Amino acid sequence: MAAEIPAAFQSLLSDSRAFANLATVKADGSPQVTPVWFDTADGKIRVNTAKGRVKARTMKEGARVALSILDPDNAYRYMQIRGEVTRVTEDGADAHIDALSQKYLGKTYPFRQAGEERIMYEITPQAVQTMG
């Protein structure tokens, strides 16, 4: 069952300056954390990466992940979302990274590498903790 994001913290999901710190688990059981751009759609958190990166190896459908989102204006206001990767797709992933780049940089994604293949992930929140 999906967890609801409290109304008082919805702004953290739409603030273009708020990054999420995404925690995944590597094959050897060790944690890996990466700051990521994100957005939401239909109650899901969406992130994007390129094939070959650590996230692409650790974020399979069914993988458990956690995100920590810190308010850029108040470090004592944040939320943690624990969830499950419920969708992994290349369909629309290029357009998604461009949309994220518009949100965070105000322009089309400028870091694309020749031959890069993008992947979009949807994470269904299962537990949410907030502070602030």
What would you say this structure looks like, in words?
With 132 residues, the protein is α+β, with helices and mostly antiparallel strands. The chain has one domain: Pnp Oxidase, Chain A. 17% of the residues lie in helices and 45% in strands. It is built from three helices and seven strands. It has a seven-stranded antiparallel sheet with strand order 2-1-5-6-7-4-3. Strand 1 (20-25) and strand 2 form a beta hairpin. The chain is globular and about 45 Å long.
Brief description of this entry?
The protein is an alpha+beta fold and 132 residues long. Helix content is 17%, strand content 45%.
Structural features:
single chain, 132 residues, alpha+beta, 3 helices, globular
In percent, how helical is the residue content?
A: 10-25%
Largest sheet: 7 strands, antiparallel
Provide the succession of SSEs. HEEEEHEEHE
Mean pLDDT figure:
95
With strands numbered from the N-terminus, the spatial order across the biggest sheet is 2-1-5-6-7-4-3
- Parts with pLDDT < 50 across at least 5 consecutive residues: none
| CATH-defined superfamily | Electron Transport, Fmn-binding Protein, Chain A
CATH third-tier fold name: Pnp Oxidase, Chain A
